[in-house]
Each structure stands twice: as C-alpha cells, then as structure tokens.
Write a structure and sequence with these properties.
352 residues; mainly beta; Neuraminidase; five-stranded antiparallel β-sheet
C-alpha cells in the first residue's frame, strides 16, 4: 500500500549502491520449512530486484505487485499467477507506480502512478533533510483493465493521491490524499466518484485496509506530538516529504468513526492486514529496535491485546496479506536474497 515504505527503512547508501540487474521471472521455489508455528510450505515467487506489495486477486489465482527490474529505474506494476509464473507488466512503464490492487470483478486494477507528469522516474527523496521519503505530488490513482489497457484517471487534485485498497464486499475504496492540505484518508467509489475525507488529525495517515466484512478499517499514522515535531512535519510536507520512523497503527469503523490506537511502540509499525476471521491484525514492525532496519511480522488482537511475534527472519519482512480463502499468506522479505538489497515475494500456508 505504499511504495516508499519499502525503501524508507533501508540505509540511504543502499539506494545509491543498488544496481538494477536484469531480472528474469521465475516459478516458485520451495517449499521451505521455516519451523514456524503459523507458516508452512513457504515458496519464493520472485527472484532478484526489488519486489513488494503483492496483493491477491479475488479468486486467489493471481497477485498484483510492484517491482523494479530489468532496465527500469523505479517501480512498475506487474501481475503473476499465484505460483509465480507469467510475470508481466500491467502499468504504463512510465513514471513511478505504487500500490496496485484488484477490483471485485478480478478484471480491473487500480494503482498509483506519476506517469502523467513525465516518462522518467521522479527524483528520489532529499536525504540531506534526514531519513525521509517522498510523497510525490504527481501521484494520482488510475483504473485499468487487468491487462493494463484502458487506463482512466480517478483522482486529479493538486498533490499526492495514492495507497488505494478496496473492500470487495462493499465495493469501497480507501486511499491517502493531500486534497485537504494534509495527508489524510479518503474514500471513493470504484469509478472515482463520491470522494469523502474520513480522517482529519494533523499528521500522516496512510496504508489503510478494510476488514473482510467491510465494517472496520486499520491504517498507520504518524501524528506529531509536540511543537518541534509539528514544525518538522509541516516543513517536510511543504517539500513533499515525510518521515517514516515513528508510525503507530489505528483502527476505526469503515467510515473513520470510533478511532482507537492499536500500538504504542514509538517505532515504525505499518502494512497491517486483518486475519481471515477479522479478530486480529498481522503487521510489520521494528519494535525490538526502533532505530533499526530489522522488521518482522507480528499479530495483535483488534482490541490491542495478545501481541505475538510471527516471524524471525532477521532482516526486512513486511506487506502480508491473506488469500481470499484465508488459507495462504503472501509477504515480502529480504530473507535468502542474493544481494543485500534484494526483496522477494513469498507465499506460505497459514496455520492459525
């Protein structure tokens, strides 16, 4: 649900040092036994490059994901079969993309893209301002057929519009927008109509997802706590930047009402997703070292109790999502990467 998150927790030097070698699509490798009580039959679906944010099609047979591979200098959207085969481009190949998601019919997709602002990748975030990521004002959300054709623009406000996800049952879409002058959550219909702002707290709101029944929503937020933090947030936002290192999870009704803070780690927690029964949240966090780049998956009850660590892979692991039937989990990790900054998409059988 968020392009920059994947890069935001890497050392700045990594972004310079990484070379984009040619990446050939591959079928899944495995299965691998993680000796994990929640995950079995782990399979690697991609091999090389930087791959992230893989999300299921409604029938569970395909995944949409973003990747920097081949000659590309930044992310584009791809679709592959659930076994890792038939990896192919479905975005325009221009600009930078993020956050692809299938519509309920399984025949259309949405994603964020900067391609209307130019064919080239927009510049990376200015790291002279600290550990920050860019919230490109040229991002808009686009609707397309699942083969990449018939591209239609759904947002046109001045500023960042991205991070869209959809509840297939209610046919609701939630996304992050600068339309209010701040990074807030908005909803709209699948055709781009009926846009409505649903969060108004000062600070960053993003990466929202619905519960399977469409009644709840969870997202990450970074709310400045004192005047110094408020000043820095405001100054960074003027330069289309924000800082990712202090993010907590919040849960609410689907309309943004009855907000409750779920985590209080003073770290970076993000990429939440509801478990198949909607009673728990699976998410990624660096809670064991808030200034570090080690992220593992954790599970917590929707009332904030019962926190439990799920993975211990020793690097960056994030972007989990359960298959529509609840039997499998897709996630992204640098585990078993052949280079220091390689991220791949994996699936596993989920054991409750």
């Amino acid at each position: 649900m968020f392009l920059h998150t994947r890069y935001a927790f890497l050392p700045a030097a990594a972004l310079v040092a990484f070379t984009f070698a040619s990446v050939a699509p591959m079928k899944a490798q495995g299965p691998v036994d993680l000796k994990n009580e929640h995950m079995a039959n782990v399979r690697q679906l991609t091999n090389g490059g930087q791959n992230a944010e893989a999300y299921w099609a409604p029938d569970g047979k395909r995944l949409i994901f973003q990747s920097t591979r081949g000659e590309a200098k930044c992310d584009q959207e791809y679709i592959m079969n659930a076994d890792g085969s038939d990896q192919h481009l479905v975005s325009t190949g221009k600009g930078r993309t993020t956050c692809g998601y299938f519509l309920p019919d399984g025949k259309h997709i949405v994603y964020g893209s900067t391609h209307l602002a130019g064919d080239a990748c927009p510049a990376d975030a200015d790291r002279s301002k600290g550990y920050v990521w860019a919230v490109y004002p040229s991002y808009d959300i686009f609707l397309a057929k699942d083969d990449g054709t018939d591209v239609k623009r759904l947002t046109s406000t001045d500023g960042y519009d991205a991070e869209a996800t959809i509840n297939w049952k209610t046919k609701s879409m939630v996304y992050t927008s600068m339309a209010s002058g701040d990074l807030d959550l908005w909803t709209m219909k699948l055709d781009g109509s009926a846009k409505k702002q649903i969060t108004k707290s000062f600070g960053y709101d993003g990466g929202a997802v619905y519960s399977h029944d469409g009644k709840k929503m969870i997202w990450r937020a970074g709310y400045p706590k004192d005047e110094a933090q408020k000043k820095r947030y405001t100054e960074l936002l003027k330069d289309n930047l924000t800082s990712p290192m202090k993010m907590e999870l919040f849960i609410s009704d689907a309309d943004g009402k009855n907000v409750k803070q779920l985590t209080d780690f003073n770290c970076a927690s993000f990429a939440p997703t509801f478990t198949p029964d909607d009673q728990q949240i699976l998410f990624s966090s660096n809670k064991h070292n808030c200034d570090g780049r080690k992220f593992e998956l954790f599970v917590i009850n929707v009332d904030g109790t019962g926190l439990k660590q799920v993975t211990e892979l020793g690097g960056f692991t994030s972007f989990p999502e359960f298959s529509p039937d609840g039997k499998k989990l897709v996630f992204v990790t640098d585990w078993h990467g052949k280079s220091q900054y390689e991220f791949n998409v994996f699936t596993a059988d989920w054991k409750k």
